[in-house]
Amino acid sequence: MLGWKIKLFRIAGIRLAVHYSFLLLLGYAAWDGARSGGLSGALLEMTLLVAFFACVVLHELGHCYAAHRYGIRANQILLMPIGGMAEFERIPREPRMEMTIAIAGPLVNVAIMVVLVGFLRFKGAFSDGPAADAVWSGANGFFLQIFFANAAMATLNLLPVFPMDGGRVLRAALATRKPYLRATQLASMVAKVIGCIGIAIGVWYGLWLLALLFAFVIFVGNLEVRSVERSERERQHWDEYWKRYHEMLVEAPPVLPPLLDTMEDEGKNREAGSEQ
User: Membrane spanning segments where (predicted)?
Assistant: First the structure.
């Protein structure tokens, strides 16, 4: 299903693609805005959604830049209704590398928040009087919504829910003391507990997108755990193969020197026979 996508363009050599279901979200935003504000309301809701996902792209580009510093290439960034996902040619196993790449995305959101706070301060949003009220209303309130959207994005991504950013940080921390596979399994167990709580909260309060997000994260986390288990089995298989191969080379009796001795003896016998 992740293959159902529309390829858009490239940013810094990384393909940007949109899942078909994203068009449904865009249509819903237009419909929801039109109910209360007509055409202008629809345009405002769609603009807000596009601006939010522009921040999602910047978030994913933060991951891609950090990965590039370690020589890991990003193939594409896929946008879906529940967020974005950067696809890399490989996932680093070294804890420090994984932790750095994981934390880079939320740091981008924090940087966006700092810029927005500076802009709102410049506009007088933090001063007293009617000028401040004007800033928080109308079109300027748009930037306040983007600020809180980035705050929510950074907070959600830093939850220890594998394979989200916080979950990868947890896996990297565990991998400093435990085998990589065991660290992945433990991070996945924590993710399932928190994810189930998130789904329950989403269903209870009618936050269906939040519930869908946590359900999707648990699903993708299970897929990655299986992938790590499969790669670990393959790694153990080849480690055992090369170990046996090395033992055969070390323990096998030398064949070449006796063969050379035999050839030398045969040569001497031929010479002795010719002299007679």
Answer: 12-31, 37-59, 100-122, 142-162, 183-201
